[in-house]
Amino acid sequence: MKNLYKIIAVSGGILISVMVFAQQRFPRPDFESGYQVPSPTAPEPRSASIEIIDVILLFAALSLVTWFVLKKRSRKGILYTTLFSMIYFGFYRNGCICAIGAIQNVTLALFDPGYAISFTALAFFVLPLLFALFVGRVFCGGVCPLGAIQELVILKPISIPVGLQKALSLIPYIYLGLAVLYAATKTDFIICRYDPFVGIFRMDAPYHMLILGGSFILLGLFIARPYCRFLCPYSVLLNWMSSSSWKHLSITPAECIDCKLCENSCPVDAINKPVSEPVSSSRDVRRFLLLVVLVPFWVLIGGYIGSKAHIYLSRANHTIQLAEMLITNPEVRNDPENLDVQAFLTSGKTLDELINEAELIRENFNTGGWWTGGFLGLAFGLILTGKTLFRNRKDYTPDKGNCVSCGRCMTYCPVGTPGYEMLIKKEIESDN
Amino acid sequence: MEKENKTKGQKRREFIQKSTRYSLLIGLGGLTGLVLPKTRTGDWVWQIDPFLCTQCGRCADECVLTPSAVKCVHAYDLCGYCDLCGGYFKPGVTDLHTGAENQLCPTSAIQRSFIEEPFFEFTITEDLCIGCGKCVKGCSSFGNGSLHLQIRHDRCLNCNQCSIARNCPSDAIKRVPAKQPYNIKGDFTKS
After folding, report:
1. Virtual CA dihedral for A66, A67, A72, A77, nearest 10 degrees?
2. A-B contacts (CB, under 8 Å)
3. Looking at the structure, do residues A147 and A244 belong to the same domain, yes or no?
4. 370-429 in A: which are within 8 Å (CB) of B?
5. What average pLDDT score do residues A68-84 get?
6. How many Å apart are CA A185 and CA A270, to the nearest integer?
């Protein structure tokens, strides 16, 4: 009989509503057997004090690499730090939080008044840039777990033609622009979503991301650090900082003797060879000036294209997707399989409210499109202008913007080694 | 001595480098200054608001972990300890035995144990639970709604961008302060 009553009660429950959270349909029983009602367990997340350890370790690793690069000049030391970073920040901490992804947290903190960024994320964003401004990209060479996993698989790097390098170096700007746009419009964190290595660190990833990560590693056997050079959005910022850094890794400990031994040592093509400045003709100057004058036009053209593309760009946003779907296909309302539509219908929001919300977001995308496009236009114009600049160089020097401070070239330099000293001694003796 | 040997071009280049360096430093400092008032000590974690959750089932599939870090949590305080549990049995079951064909849970993660006539306790075996929310749907439709989905922080990797939050159709997954990492029904009321 008891069961029958319950079945009646249950069917009543179905009739009332499936979606309404009716609480205490059945009163809490009074137990006679002395049974104690347990309370649900709540395992604590990683405590905040351990998050501070991440920041301390980041700072320590950056300082250590700086010491290895500038004072100790030890490639081995850099390599061991890289290995440690890959194990700790990569495999142990599962590649999160990382400096690259922190770009989006900082952006979101700037644009979303309701979002409070954690101190860890801000520190991960600022510290590597600060170090780059003072001593070059030591973060890339020794601390970044994504850099580390690529560093360790470099097998036989091939050199990439300068023109192609310049062209490909525009991709990180596009990636950065889009990442900031999508983070600012609260749409998505694309850097995290398309991080090819995080799946490897987690040892768990969707199939397509595993394929992507695998292909980057395979590509990395022959094209050193493909993600760092041609994709990483953070590399854009690091490049700016490092280009005018206060100090930087130097290939030789003393005077460069132009022995050419280091010429092919750099896997990322970041060694500038000695060139003597060609006598600049008035044509060169005119070309340079023309390109400088053109820069504002690139900015305008980029901004225009960006604003024209804003409708396509905005389709990544969940609200806009939903609103578009409900407007173009009103019959999806009856599709029980369409979870997004069903969730919207049960949320109690009206279609007009949704459309208003979507229109606001699209307006943000329009503004964001102008900014992103303008930024890309500026980057394009400056890269183009930069190509016409010549620098007089006597010695082999690292390209401060692109050098990732891996320290390989230092081991190639003979200056200061015992063999070199002996050779010099012999030369002096034979001269005498 | 060395300074005097520098050509005009070198001096100019140095000046440009120095001024770029300082402007970059100021820029970085400015950005940090803008963001710094918004920082909070302590971290954020992701959590499900059980009152917004529609038990769509995506939590089971979209989490970067397999099986998902989302598990069913039982707020015993709210439970009616029913014999015929809407979260445990498939709808329409009349013969209340614990055979697999009767169970709503696809992985048999709910344990049903007898307390006293006519009450039964239901416990979730977290290692088996995949966070599909089928039992939650059953419990909130037919029962008290004491079963609900929560992100378990002993498993959650706390990704910068939560994959299930992005795919949640009802925006039920939000960042919450790490000091109050759960929205467990019972000690958490709809505000």
Report:
1. -70
2. 199
3. yes
4. none
5. 95
6. 36
At CA A175, angle to CA A220 and CA A311, rounded to 5? 140
Q: Could you tell me if residue A29 is inside a domain? A: no
Inspect the interface and report whether the beta carbons of A42 and B184 lie closer than 8 Å.
yes
Answer yes or no: is A20 within a domain.
no
Residue A247 maps to a domain: yes
A293: tokens are 């004058």
The torsion angle over the Cα atoms of residues B12, B13, B15 and B20, rounded to 10 degrees, is 140
pLDDT, tens digit (0-9, with 9 covering 90-100), for A287-309: 889 999 999 999 999 999 999 99
Contacts of A181 (CB under 8 A, 6+ apart): A313, A365, A368, A369, A371, A372
Domain count, chain A: 2
Do residues A203 and A96 both lie within one domain?
yes
**Under an 8 A CB cutoff, do B38 and A115 touch?**
yes
Nearest to B61 by CA among B164, B156, B152, B160: B164
Q: What is the largest CA-CA distance in chain B?
A: 100
Residue A188 in domain = yes
Q: Are residues A294 and A160 in the same domain?
A: no
> A270 lies in which domain range?
51-277+395-422
Both A151 and A168 in a single domain?
yes
Position B125 scores a pLDDT of 95
Q: Classify A42 in phi/psi space as left (phi over 0), alpha (psi -120 to 50) or beta.
A: beta
Supply the pTM of this predicted model. Answer: 0.89
Report yes or no: B138 and B99 within 8 Å, Cβ to Cβ.
no
**Measured between beta carbons, which residues in chain A are less than 8 angstroms from residue B79?**
28
Radius of gyration of chain A (CA): 29
